[in-house]
Design brief:
With about 300 residues, this protein is an alpha+beta fold. It contains 2 helices and 12 strands, in the order αβββββββββββαβ. Strands 1-2-3-4-5-6-7-8-9-10-11-12 form a 12-stranded antiparallel barrel. The longest helix is centred in the first third of the chain and has 50 residues.
Amino acid sequence: MKKLVIAVALLVSSISFAQTIEELKAEKSKKAAEVAKLQGEVDALQSQIDAFPGWKFSTFGTIGANFSGFSDWFSNAVPNSSAGNIGITVNGIANLDREKYFWRNSGNLNLGWVKLDDKNDPTDDTDFRGTTDVFTITSLFGYKLTKTIAVSTLAEYRTSFISNFNDPGYLDVGVGATWTPIPELVVVVHPLNYNFVFSSGGTTFDSSLGAKLVADYNRTFGKFKFRSNFSTFQSYKSSDLSNWTWINSLGFNIWKGIGVGLETGLRNNKQETFNSDPVSFSSLESTPSVLQSYWLVGLSYGF
């Protein structure tokens, strides 16, 4: 009889436990549905806030770094050495949107350093040396003719930041039209643009009149922040004076603004290629068209 009572008690306990688990799962599903509904309402309110005219600010960047050291590691080309690589990117946006006009400003900074210290060579360079060095700032003002078309003027400045600041430096100033088919995409077409090129006396760079085309896309997808910027100048004087740059930045938020970031850059500029080695390239016309590129992956922070 005693065993029977124990068995019945265990059976009742098991049934009660199973019922409790099912009740908890049902309650969890109910709460998850409520959270999803509230998140949808929050997203809708945020969309209304984003669409409201006024200043909008956004900044995110990436930091990538790695360090290593070797002691009598003979499978390595330099068995006794230390090495390091540091990269930093920052993207900033400040936009003002009014009923009749807009003013859009953006900046991109990408810096990189690398070092290799050969412990067996007392004469080698043990300092960090600059590698990637990109600095771009853009300001676009437009007067709206329609909701998507505006007459506009653009100023864009590009140069190095760590070394050879403004040598060369590129300043584009022009007028034309801007098309904004969606809030996240801005396309600038300026058929009248002057490309000022600044450089020291030891290099050969030419300024010229031409056309400017810029396409800038900024979008946030949940925890993702993405920016793609394509900028090209097509010289009316000579195609050898034309150039283009395309930079893509992606940030993924993991926790409180901290996440993983990726940035890639492509560029074609025959004047830069020629002046990098004027001895090997006899003239600008004979200089090959070289595709420049860089990439960086690391921790990111956005706010």
